[in-house]
Write a structure and sequence with these properties.
CATH architecture: Alpha-Beta Barrel
Distance between the termini: 26 Å
Strand order of the largest sheet: 6-5-4-3-2-1-7-8
Number of domains: 1
CATH topology: TIM Barrel
Helix content: 25-40%
CATH class: Alpha Beta
CATH superfamily: Aldolase class I
Radius of gyration: 19 Å
């Protein structure tokens, strides 16, 4: 029994999937950035990307099963040659579409078309901005990233994001600590970004850093791995369990393989039924009631107010 399962058992809880709401598609590991906290270990030098056959099969699954939400992520998902195909296929199937946008991709010359394209297709944007302080953002994401992000946000505001189209920002703590309360930090973000930069947005999502990939490496280098896992375990909040994203979200890898969540994907914890499963092997009905595959990293999603791809849970 892993530490997370031990916590569940101690509170008389089990974790099983509910009806599918969100299909989260990871199109690959290539990104124009290499952020220190990235659980995907994405970077400009990564080459793992979705091919045409896989994109076509995922598109067929979307048209057949019509998930309510299609959440496109990466890496920088816009770097995929099939990004627009997935956006348009999902929209034509009636799905709400989310683009997990790192903002700086908009400042790349060959992607200047993105703001208007996303607005024309009414794509919801969830964008990473781990602080409203330039120093903190640049420490976590690289020199100059904050300034590029501000320019990108202004371009998104100019086409209606944060006003008539949904624009949400994502906060990650700098280092091995839990995030502050979402509502209070959101008020600070809104005040500073509007007052100092004239930027508006809808909601702030606070995420707990997952002990995976680069962040896990940093913890071990600083001899803080055990300390961080202890913090997560001691902060376990049973009221977050029913709202965990793994209950209603299915994560799909760039080869079409399926996982209970994006974090499990990065740890190669693939769904199986005697053999590894791919999206085209299953239906939404197959998932309902299935037990979730867990590990010690799941403690990050249930610590404090909880953490998910749409922010705090409690």
């Amino acid at each position: 029994m892993n530490p997370f399962e031990h916590k569940l058992a101690g509170h008389g809880l089990t974790l099983r999937r509910a009806a599918l709401q969100t299909l989260q598609v990871n199109v690959g590991r290539k990104c124009n950035q290499a952020c220190r906290h990235c659980h995907v270990d994405a970077a400009p030098w990564r080459t793992e990307m979705m091919d045409g056959t896989t994109a076509t099969r995922i598109g067929e699954w979307i048209r057949t099963h019509r998930p309510a939400v299609v959440d496109i992520t990466g890496g920088a998902p816009e770097l995929s040659e099939f990004f627009r195909f997935l956006v348009e296929t999902a929209r034509q199937s009636g799905a709400e579409v989310i683009d997990r946008n790192n903002l700086t991709i908009i400042e790349e010359k060959e992607y200047a078309w993105l703001p208007q394209y996303l607005a024309d297709n009414r794509v919801q944007i969830i964008a990473s901005l781990p602080c409203y302080s330039a120093d903190n953002v640049n420490k976590q994401r690289g020199n100059g990233v904050f300034e590029k992000s501000i320019r990108a946000l202004r371009k998104l505001n100019a086409v209606g994001y944060g006003i008539r189209l949904p624009l949400h920002l994502v906060y990650n703590p700098l280092g091995p600590r839990l995030p502050p309360r979402q509502q209070e930090l959101e008020a600070d973000y809104k005040d500073v970004l509007e007052r100092e930069f004239g930027i508006v947005f809808n909601q702030l999502y606070v995420l707990t850093n997952q002990p995976i990939a680069r962040f896990a490496d940093d913890l071990r280098k600083q001899n803080k791995w055990d300390e961080y896992l202890e913090l997560l375990a001691n902060s376990f909040n049973p009221s977050t369990v029913d709202a965990l994203m793994c209950r209603t979200t299915l994560s799909v890898g760039y080869r079409g393989e399926v996982y209970d969540c994006d974090f499990n994907q990065m740890l190669d914890m693939q769904m199986q039924n005697g053999a590894p499963l791919h999206l085209w092997d299953i239906t939404p009905e197959y998932l309902d009631g299935r037990p979730v595959l867990t590990g010690s990293h799941c403690l990050a999603c249930t610590a404090g107010c909880g953490s998910s791809c749409t922010g705090a849970l409690a």
